[in-house]
Specification:
By secondary structure, the protein is of the alpha/beta class. 46% of the residues lie in helices and 16% in strands. It folds into two domains: 185 residues, Rossmann fold (3-Layer(aba) Sandwich); 173 residues, Rossmann fold. The protein has 16 helices and 13 strands. It is globular and about 65 Å long.
């Protein structure tokens, strides 16, 4: 018999769905009936989500300065609140957990209006706009890379970011620094918002490396479908061995196989670099309002595991210099790989499930934190 219903709310991107999926598996294993509320975009990819049912809920962003667009957004969000209210009345969850992003606004707002215990999980080192909007209303804020500070410090419980099983299976995978004349494996990926920059910049940076280094390089690079042929052709022209594709289903394995990773600095990426333990050059997504990726990247930089480079300052010469400085010091790469490990909490899924159950049972944050102490 089920312990009760837990409603998770996530959507927009895989970065929000991954931790929700990990929590869903853990809660289901503990005997809870899990439901997912998501937006129409994420609903297309939610078929594999381990939930009894997936419920599309209307939502919209509220970042536009256009008054008409703002009115439409608020109307859509209010429509979502009404849908979520009806859903809550039907499935009667004992707790609602949101994972950031605009799709979480209607379900979490509806839950707090009805007196249903609610909490949010913030993956990043700084709180996103949706979670900020909900922070005053929810009972708890589970921090991934977020540290207890600021106005809502008393509500923040640092549990870490849930790790996907495919990544956890590679935890601490042995790093073998390339010896002289060995192949040097470079992994490059940027997600849907970052692949274009890397497709344009990385081949030109590699073009500036010494010929002896180019012959040793084995590049695995994510590129948009419309860029794939051009990027492949450029590597062929340079005589560089490369595997270029729009998507890699086995990205964690590619990361474990790499000597150096060049990527954005989303919370999931920083988490996986830490769990697997790989050196990296991180280029945060520019123009983000809260610079969440910059703050995430700084965690690995402070650990001695990464270089942080801002996109506007990068050109082919500077990127070639960074790549060369790292791969030219194999022992340094090994030290960075070792330093990456330990930034992430690998028991985050269990801690997040514990916190979810505590909020559902009516425990206070103080009581839960007391129970966490060794």
């Amino acid at each position: 018999m089920s312990k009760g219903v837990v409603l998770l709310s996530a959507g927009g991107t895989g970065g929000h769905l991954f931790p929700a999926e990990a929590l869903a598996h853990e809660l289901a294993a503990r005997g809870w009936e899990v439901h997912l509320a998501t937006d129409a975009r994420a609903n297309r990819f939610a078929g594999h989500f381990p939930a009894k049912a997936v419920h599309p809920i209307a939502s919209a962003t509220f970042g536009s300065k256009n008054p008409i667009a703002l009115m439409r957004s608020f109307w859509t969000i209010w429509k979502g609140v009404r849908q979520a209210t009806a859903l809550l009345a039907r499935i009667k969850p004992v707790v609602v957990v949101g994972f950031g992003g605009y799709p979480t606004l209607p379900p979490l707002y509806a839950a707090t209006r009805r007196g249903v215990p609610a909490m949010v999980h913030e993956q990043n080192a700084v709180m996103g706009r949706a979670n900020k909007a909900l922070a005053a209303r929810v009972s708890a804020i589970a921090g991934g890379f977020l540290r207890p500070s600021g106005t809502y410090a008393d509500k923040i419980v640092q549990v870490g970011n849930p790790v996907r099983p495919a990544v956890l299976a590679l935890q601490g995978a042995a790093f073998e620094a390339p010896k002289e004349h060995d192949a040097i494996k470079l992994l490059v990926f940027g997600g849907s918002q970052g692949a274009r920059f890397f497709s344009e910049m990385v081949p030109e940076a590699i073009a500036k490396l010494p010929d002896a280094v180019k012959k040793r390089l084995r590049v695995t690079q994510q590129a948009r479908a419309e860029d794939e042929t051009r990027v492949n052709a450029r590597y062929t022209e340079l005589g560089v061995s490369a595997e270029v594709a729009p998507f890699f289903s086995n990205l964690p394995n590619k990361m474990a196989d790499a000597h150096l990773v060049l990527s954005r600095a989303g919370a999931s990426t920083v988490l996986e670099l830490s769990v697997i333990g790989r050196p990296s050059i991180l280029v945060p997504l520019p123009h983000a309002l809260d610079d969440d990726q910059g703050h995430n990247a700084q965690l690995l930089v402070d650990a001695g595991a990464a270089l942080l480079r801002r996109q506007p300052t990068i050109d082919a010469d500077s990127l070639a210099g960074d790549i060369m400085s790292l791969i030219g010091e194999p022992n340094g790469l090994a030290r960075m790989a070792a330093s990456a490990r330990g930034v992430a909490q690998t028991n985050a899924t269990q801690l997040l499930a514990d916190l979810t159950e505590a909020i559902a049972s009516g425990k206070t944050i103080t009581e839960f934190k007391e129970g966490m102490r060794p």
